Each structure stands twice: as structure tokens, then as C-alpha cells.
Amino acid sequence: MRHQTLEELQAVAEVDAACSVMTRSQRLEHWAALLEQFPDRCLGALPGTEYMRLDVRDKAQCLESPLSIAFADPMLRAQGLRNETYGEARRFFELSDWQLHAIVCHCHVGATMKAGWVAVQVRAATKQDGKLFGKLREAITHWPAIRLFTHARE
After folding, report:
1. Quick check: 68 and 42 in contact, CB under 8 A?
2. Cα–Cα distance measured from residue 74 to residue 110, given in angstroms and rounded to the nearest whole number
3. In the chain, which ranges are continuous DSSP H helix?
4. Looking at the record's lineage, which domain of life comes first (predicted)?
5. Cα–Cα distances in Å, from 76 out to 22, 30, 50, 96, 138?
6. What's the predicted TM-score (pTM) here?
7. What is the three-class DSSP state of 42?
8. Which of 4, 7, 12, 57 is deepest in the core (most CB within 10 A)?
């Protein structure tokens, strides 16, 4: 599949730039639906995202990963998805590091994962919002002692 900018798409198709902007939940649901189109498709996982330095993690990507599926979609690119890196996916889908880690990291499934499994993880991220455990985990991971421990591995 060839990746095209919004301008390139407008040259060959009528694209309404004023179309409604998708909400976070709609973007995540759309990504999950893309993954479910071929649920048995094997996708690459990113290795050890929780141990990467922040700058390295933001640039991390993997061929044929769940992030590649999202970036290959013209609708998500038209909504503002700029590339298939970890940092861009975190920004665009408004995910915490822990949420995105649960979706793309190899520690849960090994080097490859089924697209259908990833779709379940993406939908779980939409349901975690506002949950006490998710908020508690986010609060704990931002404590200075935890951050020092994390940076010691960098």
C-alpha cells in the first residue's frame, strides 16, 4: 500500500477536509475495526518498550506492526496520523505509555501477535479511561522514585 498525503489524495479523489474530526474513541474504534478485517494476520511487536529511553521509544517502529496498520489507513492519516512510530501513535490516539505498551509490546505475546488480539487491546484502552486502577497506575508511574529507577536503565 502506498502512503499518500491529504494533498495527494485530493488530487485523485474528492476529500472533504471539513469532515468531522473523529474523537479519541472513534479513532481507537476505527483502528480496532481495521485490525479485525484480518484477525489472523500476524503483526510484529515492538521489543521492550518499557525499557527504552523516552527519545528512543518515541521513534520506535516495527515493520508490519499494529501501528503500520493504522498508518496505512487514509482516514486516520487525514485525521492527523503523521507516521507509524510509537510516539506518534501515543499522541494521535491519546494513549498513555502503559496503554500503548499493552497494545504493541512483545512482552505480552512474543515477537508476533494476531491482529484480532490487538483489536481487543485497542478496545480495552478506550474502556480504561476513568477507571480507578488505570488512574492509580498512571499516578504511580509518574512518581519521582519510579522515574529515577526507569532512567537508571537507560
Report:
1. no
2. 29
3. 6-12, 24-36, 54-59, 66-71, 74-79, 86-92, 97-104, 115-128, 132-141, 144-152
4. Bacteria
5. 9, 8, 26, 19, 27
6. 0.73
7. strand
8. 57
Domain definitions of the chain by residue range: 23-129
Specify the DSSP class assigned to residue 65: -
pLDDT tens digits in sequence order for the chain, 154 residues long: 566 665 666 666 665 554 689 999 999 999 999 999 999 999 999 999 989 999 999 999 999 999 999 999 999 999 999 999 999 999 999 999 999 999 999 987 889 999 999 999 999 998 865 455 555 555 555 443 334 344 444 4
* Helix 115-128 with 24-36: angle, nearest 10 deg: 160
Cβ distance 71 to 81 under 8 Å? yes
